[in-house]
Amino acid sequence: MLNAYKHLHQLGHAHSVEVWSEDVLVGGLYGIIVGKVFCGESMFHKATNASKLAMLSLVGLLKSQAAEFIDCQMQNPHLASLGCIEVPRAQFLSMLAEQSQQTFEYDVWRPQTLNISQWL
């Protein structure tokens, strides 16, 4: 699985949002991009709320590009606390069909430091 994600990243399909405290990775998330759809794979934290900061940054970045949703795969209490909602299958498939055919600006996924205050 690790090699598959490395390969997908090299191809420009897998991306991560990382939260660092000085030189220590304290949280983040990663997933796959299909058009303007971020398909989340996993989130983690070593510091309180670090994964939430990663999600906030991801949402802000996606909103700035007119992306309309994140595919979280399955709702759970943690994701629900961040605003995740379930949508009917037909609605999801319609949204997926539309958003997966769109593209982001060229350099959106370049390595960058995001300032979450810009999204608040």
Nearest-integer average pLDDT: 88
> What's the level 1 CATH class?
Alpha Beta
Task: Record the strand order, biggest sheet.
Answer: 1-2-3-4
Q: Give the helix proportion (percent range).
A: 25-40%
Q: Look at the structure and name the CATH superfamily.
A: Leucyl/phenylalanyl-tRNA-protein transferase, C-terminal domain
Give, in order, the helices and strands.
HEEEHEHH
Helix/strand-derived category reads alpha+beta
CATH topology: Aminopeptidase
Largest sheet: 4 strands, mixed
Number of strands: 4
> What is the CA-based Rg, rounded?
14 Å
Span between N and C termini? Answer: 35 Å
Beta content: 25-35%
Number of helices: 4
Low-pLDDT sequence parts: none
Any idea what the shape is? globular
Question: Quick recap of the structure?
Answer:
The protein has helices at residues 2-10, 50-64, 77-81, 89-99; strands spanning 14-21, 24-34, 37-45, 70-71.
Structure write-up:
By secondary structure, the chain is α+β, with helices and mostly antiparallel strands. The protein has a single domain (about 1-110), classed as Leucyl/phenylalanyl-tRNA-protein transferase, C-terminal domain (Aminopeptidase). It has four helices and four strands, in the order H-E-E-E-H-E-H-H. A four-stranded mixed β-sheet has the order 1-2-3-4, with helices on both faces. Strand 1 (about 15-20) and strand 2 form a beta hairpin. The radius of gyration is 14 Å and the shape is globular. The model has no long low-confidence stretch (mean pLDDT about 90). Keywords: Acyltransferase, Cytoplasm, Transferase. One of its GO terms (biological process) is protein catabolic process. InterPro entries: Acyl_CoA_acyltransferase (IPR016181), Leu/Phe-tRNA_Trfase (IPR004616), Leu/Phe-tRNA_Trfase_C (IPR042203).
